[in-house]
Amino acid sequence: MEKDKIITPIEFMTIISGTIIGIGILTLPADVSKYAHEDGWISILIALLYPLYLWVIMIYVSNKKPNNYILELSRKYFGNILGNIFNLILALNFLYSASIIVSYIGYVLTNYLSYFLSRNNIIILMAIVCYYTIIKGFKVVSRLNYIVFFVTIVLLLIPSAALKEGNFLNVLPVFKTNIVDVMKGAYSGIFSFIGMEAAFLIYPFISDKKQIKKYSILALLLVALCYIWVQFITLFYLGDEVIKKLRWPMIIITETLNIPLVNNFRYIFIFLWTNVILKTLVNYCFFSSFTFQDVFKFKNDKISYTISIIILLIVSISYKNLIRTQYLSMLLGTIVIIYNLIYITTISIFVKRDDIYEK
């Protein structure tokens, strides 16, 4: 195992949470409140079952195959040709998530911050920054996640100032939404939980594998707390009826914060949160590049990085408007989730079969 790919358990935790938490902080409250209303937090907990299920499988597979990441297991059980095809689909799934992220942040910045830049220019600029980061290697990516993790926590705590101006009646009544609408909210919110799949690529590189279970469940716990907190604070301050009419409710809250010497905190929040989202974008691009390199065995790693960025640019720019982006994120996101569940579950079944034969 290459020394430059060894990560600590804490870095493992921040990579998992950093791959999941991103643009969802801005979109999730509106997504779940549209159906679940005041019970949106229940929808979030139900949506959490998706990464939790992957976590259970990851713990089992990492115990049985601690030195083999999922790409190697795929070739072992499906054969080189079919296994690599499945691996390439996984790489494209990562790039799909990256394209949705960079497309959304392009709309956010053109609407709230970078009025002088077009959405396509923002996408190109972020792709360049992303490329410059991932060519530095996995260790730099892991350290980036570690640093930005603390920035993320601070940024999510700042809106707590809205507690003194909100209304507790906005979060009431609870348990009044019918189960069908709660499930619809969970379906809309589940796309914000994509990213746990990355754990299957990096668990062999953890310095202390005995800590995988502890730090991975801690990562999911932090993700759940962050999303529930954002859902609560936006609902508490804005109310259900207002949230449903907004695209990015969290941004509206930051506009109302009064900070000495700061004219409008919204600009600072969007700028800082863009760096958080950029970290998530870097993760997805790196994992897709890692998969391309594993499949094609390029002599130079930069070839796989370049392929990922080119595909990212082509797909992201093809999203013509926000409505189309939202539609494709729901449609393709559903396909990605179903594929990941089948792909990872099937491999876990083969691992279980091997374990039975060995016993």
Task: Give your account of this protein's structure.
The chain is an all-alpha fold. It has one domain: Amino acid/polyamine transporter I (Up-down Bundle), CATH 1.20.1740. Helix content is 74%, strand content 0%. It has helices at residues 9-20, 24-36, 40-47, 49-64, 70-78, 80-112, 119-134, 138-157, 179-189, 199-202, 212-238, 240-243, 249-255, 265-296, 301-318, 322-358. α13 (249-255) runs antiparallel to α14 (265-296). The longest helix has 37 residues, at 322-358. The two termini are 28 Å apart. The mean pLDDT is 91.
Short description:
By secondary structure, this protein is mainly α. The chain has 16 helices and no strands. Keywords: Germination, Membrane, Transmembrane, Transmembrane helix, Transport.
Q: Beta-strand level of the residues, as a percent range?
A: under 5%
Q: Which regions are unreliable across 5 or more consecutive residues at pLDDT < 50? A: none
| SSE string | HHHHHHHHHHHHHHHH
CATH superfamily: Amino acid/polyamine transporter I
Pfam families: Spore_permease
Protein name: Spore germination protein
Family: Belongs to the amino acid-polyamine-organocation (APC) superfamily. Spore germination protein (SGP) (TC 2.A.3.9) family.
Keywords: Germination, Membrane, Transmembrane, Transmembrane helix, Transport
